[in-house]
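job 3f2a | input accepted
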Amino acid sequence: MSTPADGPARWARELLSRRPVQPDARTCGASALVLAEACRSEAYARALVEGRVDLAAETSAMHRRVTGAVDVTGRLQTPWPRALGTPPWAAARQLAGRTGLPYRVRPLWPGVARESARAAALAELRTAVLAGLPCPVYVGSAALPRHVLLVLAAGRGPADPLVAHDPATGRPRRLEVPELVSGRLGTGWPVPWFTVAPAPRPSARRTPA
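job 3f2a | predicted structure (209 res):
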């Protein structure tokens, strides 16, 4: 099995080693987005580690932003009830606004996605994680998505595991790709629902001379 990619840099690793958890039951998605930002910005991660920025307050502010009427870029968006957590399309808007990349939501739920589509979505996510872009994965029951994990590292082989941060426990969680593709996870919430990852950029088409 290939070794997972290096993952976050020094201060982000220090932050994750402290096992940060979501401040309440509704903020797993917001917590994942704050940690994604920390993994992209060493200055932000260091401020969180040193206590100059409060993690719980940042998570609550993130939750208000992604469910409010205006997104991170100042554009209007459809508000969402905070009691229902963070919807995947709001996570995609936040990540796109911070990175400048087009993010998209792809279904993993067996009720709508075939195995080939789930495998393609996971390959897209793996490419992003290997490029240093942590990506959310939504999991839940057979009826509803209920929790958000943040994938931080991945092996380079298509069947190699993904390593995610679980905001509920603060601990890393290993996600087996065959389980994700089959639509049934071995632990925790049993059903994968969505990936949120950058969409591949279209290849430039060459014009005949």
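job 3f2a | The mean pLDDT is 92.
job 3f2a | closed
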